[in-house]
Amino acid sequence: MHGSEGKDALHSTPEDDPRPKLLPRVLGSLAIVGLMVGLMIGRLTTPDPIELQHVEPAVGGLVVWFNSEPKLHGEHIDGTVALLFDAQGRAQAGQVKVNDKNVNWRLRKTDAGLLLSVVAARPLRGQWSGAEVDDRWRLEIHLQEQ
Q: Which residues, other chains included, contact 107 with Cβ-Cβ below 8 Å and sequence gap of 6+?
């Protein structure tokens, strides 16, 4: 080197390369494609939501139909039967006969899912059992007075 003085430019740093920088574009494209593939795989592996199909009155109780088995929590609270389903559905209400007496039931939405409340003039006890029937879930609720 004969000195720090440049002959063609004002300083000794190299000139900018006029070719386009492709590496950031390639990495950005790979990141976007990877994100999209991940979202598609996640969408395919997510199970269908559990939905209440309908409620049927039965002799001495109720029959509740779902598209698949829901998580269920049931309790007897002060003479009522309360069942909480981890499912989606619409609010409903009705009556059923138990020992020739009217029993009211109501299904409503809550933050935790669907709540089925069964109330009568006298304290009730309930037993429930579920089984898969024709690719659907059937829950039978048998009610009796205490």
A: 52, 55, 89, 91, 92, 93, 114, 115, 116, 117
Q: How many CA atoms lie within 13 A of 95 on its CB side?
A: 8
With respect to residue 34, please indicate whether it lies within any of the assigned structural domains. Answer: no
Alpha helices (runs of H) in the chain, residue ranges in sequence order = 23-45
Q: Please write the tens of the pLDDT for every residue from 93-133.
A: 999 998 888 999 999 999 988 999 999 988 989 899 999 99
Number of domains in the chain: 1
Please give the Cα distance from 124 to 145 (Å, whole number): 5
Radius of gyration of the chain from its Cα atoms, rounded to whole angstroms: 33
3 has a pLDDT exceeding 70: no
CA atoms within 13 A on the CB side of 20: 4
pTM to 2 decimal places: 0.69
Task: Determine, yes or no, domain membership for 91.
Answer: yes
4 occurs within a structural domain: no
